[in-house]
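Possible race condition, two jobs.
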Amino acid sequence: MATQQLATFTIGEHLFGINVLLIREINPNTSFTPVDLAPEYIRGLMNLRGQIVTIIDPAVRLGMPQREITSASCCLVMKTTREVEDREDASELAGETVNDIVGLLVDSISDMVSADTREIESPPANIGDIDGRFMSGILKMENRLLIILKTSEVLKEGK
């Protein structure tokens, strides 16, 4: 049985997950500097131990309004393409990373989920207002629907 480890988090009322192998770290720091003339989905830049990280608001990319930052908010700092290309399972992660360091601003972190890949269903055309192109799959959990985020679409520049 093939399984996938998913880090889960909330954005608005939705529960999302991404492959844990794509995450470099979960950082509680939500202090960043806004960038003039940047697209609305780019919330700003953060200095992470001397490295500049672009902070992306996935809610805005998904068509939701920008949310207030709370004490539960945090940034998922994503691995770069270079960090995953030498892994044995690199083909599984191919296309889901970018060359620069980016962070995803999320409302809160939830549990780690181990999902049987056979239970992950194809994404529908949409869930609520979320366009299906941002989903790589869905997982029906006991009392909730887990949307597996297609990071390649969320991280892609433009609309």
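Job #2 (started ~2 s after job #1):
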Amino acid sequence: MNKSGLVSALQREAGISKAKAEAVINIFFDAMSDALAKGDRVEIRGLCSIYVRKYKGYVGRNPKTGAPVEILPKTLPFFKCGKELKERIDY
């Protein structure tokens, strides 16, 4: 399912217009993105939690040449599946 699928599902279930459903989905994703950008954790009980992990820099190797390459530190979102979702998928 993608964003347009979510919009269609919300439109159908809530009985609202497509424009309103799209606005709600956009507000939801924007709020999640803003929270993660600030370093906050997003938790949706039973579904998932998403938080930011910081990774240290290290020296890697170019697989083609074998030359050392410096990998810079980075911050990435990390998704952790909720218990109810895990049970629902792995029935």
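The first strand starts at residue 42 and ends at 44.
Logs attached separately.
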